[in-house]
Amino acid sequence: xxxxxxxxxxxxxxxxxxxxxxxxxxxxxxxxxxxxxxxxxxxxxxxxxxxxxxxxxxxxxxxxxxxxxxxxxxxxxxxxxxxxxxxxxxxxxxxxxxxxxxxxxxxxxxxxxxxxxxxxxxxxxxx
Length: 127
What we know:
127 residues; mainly beta; 7-stranded mixed β-sheet
């Protein structure tokens, strides 16, 4: 059974940093694109970042230049380095795995493209 397990969430101050990690030990990791989404209270789940199988990345405009997504195919792990955090980054963050690997960004922003999801990790940024 495939499970994605996020870790690294917590409390940070405005301008601070956090690093999220997503472990996928049961996944044929190299065959999947990985994405991060987030959901704030009362809001819809929104795309944050994605990384294709061989490394090209996509970012939401709201995090571009501040967040960096990466992957380690040996460790079967995806990471999200979050710098210059803002209170509006407060949300539950989810990692997801997609068996599709298209070249256009809109595919990665669509939650229906993803087959597996983690349970989420809370990120809270204080002002």
